[in-house]
Amino acid sequence: MSSHQQDELVISLPIGNCLIKRILVDNGSASNIMMLNTLQQMGLLEADIEKRYTTLVGFSGEMKRTIGEIHLPTYAGGINLLQKFLVIDAGSTYNIILGRSWIHDMRAIPSTVHQVIKFPTPWGTQQIRCDQVMAR
């Protein structure tokens, strides 16, 4: 088995008015998550965040309280969807985690084995190839 089949799905997408790199597509995450420093790098302010607090529980049981949430347009393969992101102030390898809410809204099929995400559009099936260099 080649090592790339162990890679996570890491992509780049236009979100808001910015091209965001190092986005993890995570079928194990119920929510879309944005790191606070990513929001700041996009030129958005903490004042843009709706103060709705949620406690997230990580894989190993650690708990992290969100700063709030923000709704931003997410563009992929001709499909523009408004998505809710929970904003957290945490260090992360990733700028954004797209969870099941985005995957389901896109009717997407992510494959870590094939390093691609496929989804239907009015123009036929589109795909986003993962950035394996960024994933490592």
Textual characterization of the structure:
With 136 residues, the chain is mainly beta. It has one domain: Beta Barrel (Cathepsin D, subunit A, domain 1), CATH 2.40.70. The protein has three helices and eleven strands. The strands form three sheets. The protein has a six-stranded mixed β-sheet. It is globular and about 40 Å long. The relative contact order is 0.27.
In short:
The chain has 136 residues and is mostly beta strands. The chain is built from three helices and eleven strands.
What are the salient characteristics of this protein?
single chain; 136 residues; Cathepsin D, subunit A, domain 1; six-stranded mixed β-sheet; three-stranded antiparallel β-sheet; 11 strands; 12% helix
Order of helices and strands: EEEHEEEEEHEEEH
CATH arch. level architecture: Beta Barrel
Number of strands: 11
- Regarding CATH, which class? Mainly Beta
Count of discrete structural domains: 1
Topology (SSEs and partners):
Elements: E1 9-15, E2 18-25, E3 32-35, H1 36-41, E4 55-57, E5 63-65, E6 68-76, E7 79-88, E8 96-98, H2 100-106, E9 109-111, E10 116-121, E11 124-129, H3 132-135
Parallel strand pairs: 2-8, 3-7
Antiparallel strand pairs: 1-2, 3-8, 4-5, 6-7, 9-10, 10-11
